[in-house]
């Protein structure tokens, strides 16, 4: 697979029952999973750049849209979500676990509108799920979130985030925060 070929493939309208793009991507996953993940991440990142959208507009939005080419960000997300829906085994989802794909999904999630985030929430959840899988080795943030007055079930993710925001003064305040929670 090449980037140009993927661009052409992803310009195809995504309709229910049309499995052409999914079949091609699954076929390439068998032998070229790493390369395909890199190319898809590149394609997704160029549709949802990390730079501020306001800076892009000043440079000339029409020129930038022509430079990125025909498949829109929504088309790319649509095909990736369709692939996710048809990957039954977790081994098939390894494509989404590559570091490049994780960064691209997180970048796209940050740059999309609320309606797109809702539409492709399950796709973006693959990036969030990987973040959670990487978190357990760093148990200090989990301990703070788990020991904070038993609020683990309701709003645990919010509590964990607030606990991870507190640690910059961790060197000084770790002992006092542990004593106050006991």
Automatic annotation (TrEMBL):
Ints3-like C-terminal domain span: 1-127
Transmembrane segments: none
Annotated Pfam families: HEAT_Ints3_C (PF24566)
Compositionally biased spans, kind Basic residues: 141-152
Region: Disordered, residue numbers: 49-73, 127-182
The organism's place on the tree of life at top rank: Eukaryota
Positions with biased composition (Basic and acidic residues): 158-175
GO cellular component: cytoplasm
Name used for this protein in its record: Ints3-like C-terminal domain-containing protein
């Amino acid at each position: 697979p090449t980037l140009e070929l993927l661009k052409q493939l992803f310009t195809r309208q995504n309709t229910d029952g049309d499995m052409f793009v999914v079949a091609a991507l699954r076929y390439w996953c068998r032998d070229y999973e790493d390369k395909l993940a890199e190319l898809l991440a590149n394609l997704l990142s160029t549709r949802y750049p990390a730079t501020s959208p306001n800076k892009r507009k000043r440079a000339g939005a029409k020129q930038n849209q022509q430079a990125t080419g025909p498949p829109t960000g929504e088309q790319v997300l649509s095909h990736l979500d369709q692939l996710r829906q048809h990957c039954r085994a977790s081994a098939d989802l390894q494509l989404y676990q590559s570091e490049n794909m994780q960064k691209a999904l997180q970048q796209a999630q940050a740059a999309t509108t609320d309606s797109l985030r809702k539409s492709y929430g399950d796709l973006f959840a693959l990036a969030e799920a990987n973040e959670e899988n990487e978190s357990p080795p760093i148990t200090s943030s989990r301990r703070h979130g788990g020991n904070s007055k038993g609020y683990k079930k309701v709003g645990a993710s919010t509590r964990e985030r607030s606990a991870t925001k507190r640690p910059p003064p961790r060197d000084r305040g770790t002992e006092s925060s542990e004593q106050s929670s006991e």
